[in-house]
From TrEMBL, chain A:
Signal peptide: none annotated. The chain crosses the membrane at residues 15-37, 43-68, 197-214, 242-269, 378-397, 403-421. Residues 65-142, 277-344, 425-490 form the YdbS-like PH domain. The keyword DNA repair does not apply. Keywords: Membrane, Transmembrane, Transmembrane helix. It comes from the Bacteria. PANTHER family: UPF0699 TRANSMEMBRANE PROTEIN YDBS, UPF0699 TRANSMEMBRANE PROTEIN YDBT. This is YdbS-like PH domain-containing protein. It holds the Pfam family bPH_2.
From TrEMBL, chain B:
It comes from Nonlabens arenilitoris. The chain crosses the membrane at residues 31-51, 57-78. This is YdbS-like PH domain-containing protein. The keyword Lipid metabolism does not apply. Residues 84-160 form the YdbS-like PH domain. The keyword Lipoprotein does not apply.
């Protein structure tokens, strides 16, 4: 068994890890120096700067390694770091919510992992031990879990020492149940059904950002090939017939290129993210593992889960699966407060729901419907911010036929808004509040009533006359809202949920 | 001791309770604070007035925009004062605020994490203070009731911490 009652240092490889990190930080500095200090050739200055860099990159990691210690005394985990600015963090073991093991590329190259300790109400990065052997990390994680359990059992007093031992045996031998494992085919499916527009946008962003660099590289290898392709845009606008169909072909191929690029990007991204995806139910928590370059291991206690969401899009509808998202009670700025479960088939969806909330959604007691016309109206107002100037331009330049484009655009947006409103509603049954939102990209958001933190009704002055308002549900895992419901019905539901929370004695976390 | 069963629909609804208003000096404070807020931007009018002599329309337009914005924001603050109000009940607190965008938020006491009383210099001048109520999770569900009488704020804070202690 691991002994960490004495101050322990990280794996020696952490020096290399900090070095890599330092070099990464230096890259920007070196670029800056290379571009801005060409004329700067004082030897003394160069020596000083180099010495400083060596100090930072070489001595820094060793200092960091030497002064980073962690140990457990009594009921607390202590993390000490820093040399000039000493820091000592004490984390009460019973406050630890979850312990995650993560690994980024640098750590992967060195064969080490980071242990992140998550407590409610702190930034996860603060309580991170960035470089440990995997074997050590796993033992450390188990040990912390065990000590925490001891504390909880001790505080309950009733059990004798024997039963503690048997209890521990029980927890270590309890069968872990595999809930989801993604095969490569599943990964492909998930990749293909991503939101390609978003990945395409990302691809375009990257290309625009690096355009001049890409151009430089290409020109270095192939000479001035762009010169010959340079299209005289002014000429093209003035005499479209001179170019004939070639412009159409260019546009069409651009669209095809964009589609291919975005599909490739989404495939790569989802394979990188979800590679070797495994979700395991162990005792009272879910363990999720995923990642190709950046590996992630996340542990979520079931009782901390606040919201379960299912997202879908037309492609996923075809393949009959959704993506689930699990939100746990979040500490501030904690990125791991939500976990994605890709490729959720209907059976798995109900299994997840049953597993997390123990009850299934019954026949709805109350249902609030939104006003689709209000959604359509708002969306059309927003669309006309872009559409009206376009129409005005068309009139100004006397291309009257071109008015059709903004008009169609506004109508299409309005139609989408109408469909969004028509397919959105809030349902409240005995145990859950369920939001159904959206049309093509629809989502179902499930939150147990008793986990509600606060409930809010809001409206702008413009919809007061229509007797409409928006409902917002605040939970420890974030807030969800639906707009344009009937105010009177919201009042009833607001009271109802609030009274339910007041009476509930269940622990929401 | 009675321990009658309560069904959630039997509990009184918020709409039946009467909302308590803020003291009148909160309105004065808001108007003064708005003015303070607008004074720095007056520079945008004064500087063109002295510098750009050939185009008097510049300071005239910026000036009228300034006056217009000031009037609108003072009007909104004025309207808003009469909407604001809170209800303290046995098990929850409800606050409503905003005229242009009206919000009404209810927090049950068994979900409150902690409370805080704050007051800035202008607040102190007007003998006012602000009560912040924090719940778990993001900051979106936190509530801040500004413009309270200090005694009242202390009373509410005491009351809430008493009630939350019972649930902890």
């Amino acid at each position: 068994m691991l002994d960490i009652s004495q101050p322990t240092r990280q794996s020696k490889l952490s020096i290399l890890f900090y070095l890599l990190k330092g070099i990464k930080g230096l890259i920007a500095f070196v670029f800056f120096a290379a571009f801005s200090m060409r004329s700067w050739n004082s030897t003394l200055g160069v020596i000083a700067v180099s010495a400083f860099i060596i100090m930072v990159t070489l001595v820094g990691p060793i200092v960091q390694y030497w002064f980073f210690k962690f140990y457990v005394t009594g009921d607390e985990l202590i993390i000490e770091k820093g040399w000039i600015f000493k820091k000592r963090k004490a984390i009460p073991l019973e406050r630890i919510q979850s312990i995650n093991i993560t690994q980024n590329i640098g750590q992967r190259l060195l064969g080490i992992v980071a242990v992140e300790i998550d407590t409610a109400g702190s930034k996860a990065k603060e309580l991170e031990i960035p470089a440990l052997n995997r074997h050590f990390a796993i033992q450390f994680k188990d040990l912390l879990g065990l000590k925490k359990q001891h504390l909880i059992i001790d505080s309950n007093v009733i059990e004798t020492a024997d039963s503690i031992v048997s209890n521990n045996d029980m927890t270590s031998t309890i069968d872990s149940k595999l809930i989801l494992e993604l095969s490569f085919i599943d990964l492909l499916k998930v990749g293909i059904t991503q939101n390609h527009l978003r990945s395409g946008g990302l691809a375009i962003g990257v290309i625009i950002g690096f355009w001049y660099k890409i151009k430089d590289v290409v020109e270095n290898f192939f000479g001035d090939i762009f010169e010959s392709v340079d299209v005289d845009l002014e000429q093209a606008v003035k005499q479209p017939e001179a170019f004939g169909y070639s412009i159409l072909v260019v546009i069409l191929s651009a669209v095809v290129m964009f589609l291919i690029a975005s599909i490739v990007v989404s495939l790569l991204m989802s394979i990188n993210k979800f590679y070797d995806y495994k979700m395991i139910l162990k005792d009272d928590h879910l363990e999720v593992r995923m990642g190709l370059l950046n590996k992630k291991e996340i542990k979520i206690p079931l009782s901390k889960i606040q919201i379960l969401e299912f997202h879908s899009n037309p492609l996923r509808k075809l393949l009959n699966f959704k993506t689930a998202r699990i939100y746990q009670a979040q500490s501030q700025n904690n990125i791991i407060s939500s976990v994605e479960v890709p490729a959720c088939h209907p059976a798995l969806q109900s299994q997840l729901q049953h597993l997390i909330f123990e009850e299934s959604i019954e026949q709805s007691e109350k249902e609030l419907l939104t006003n689709p016309w209000s959604h359509a109206r708002l969306d059309m107002y927003i669309a006309s911010i872009f559409g009206l100037p376009l129409a005005a331009m068309a009139i100004f330049f006397q291309y009257y036929w071109a008015i059709i484009i903004p008009v169609c655009f506004i109508i299409a947006i309005g139609f989408m808004g109408y469909q969004y409103g028509k397919n959105s509603r809030v349902i409240r049954d005995d145990d859950f509040v369920v939001f159904y939102k959206g049309w093509l990209f629809n989502s179902v958001i499930i939150s147990p009533v008793y986990k509600t933190q606060a409930i809010e009704k809001w409206r702008s002055i413009f919809i007061k006359k229509r007797g409409e308002a928006h409902l917002k549900l605040h939970t420890a895992g974030g807030s969800r809202q639906l707009k344009y419901l009937i105010e009177k019905e919201i009042n009833v539901m607001q009271n109802d949920i609030n009274n339910h929370v007041i009476q509930s004695t269940k622990n929401w976390m | 001791m009675t321990n009658e069963q309560l069904l959630s629909y039997q509990l009184p609804s918020i709409e039946q309770s009467s909302f308590e208003k803020h003291p009148k000096r909160f309105l004065n404070k808001k108007l003064v604070a708005k003015l303070f807020y607008f004074i720095p931007s007056l520079a945008g009018v004064i500087i063109p007035f002295f510098i750009v002599e050939n185009h008097p329309w510049i300071w005239k337009t910026t000036g009228s925009v300034w006056v217009l914005l000031l009037i609108i924001s003072i009007f909104i603050s004025y309207k808003e004062f009469f909407v604001r109000g809170y209800v303290l009940r046995e098990n929850d607190i409800t606050y409503r605020y905003g005229w242009l965008f009206h919000h009404q938020i209810t927090i049950p006491f068994n979900r409150i994490q902690h409370t805080e009383i704050n007051h800035g210099p202008i607040d102190r001048y007007f003998k006012l203070c602000e009560l912040d109520i924090y719940t778990a999770g993001g900051s979106s569900s936190d509530l801040s009731i500004s413009g309270l009488d200090p005694d009242k704020a202390r009373f509410i804070k005491e009351y809430i911490s008493q009630r939350t202690a019972q649930h902890a």
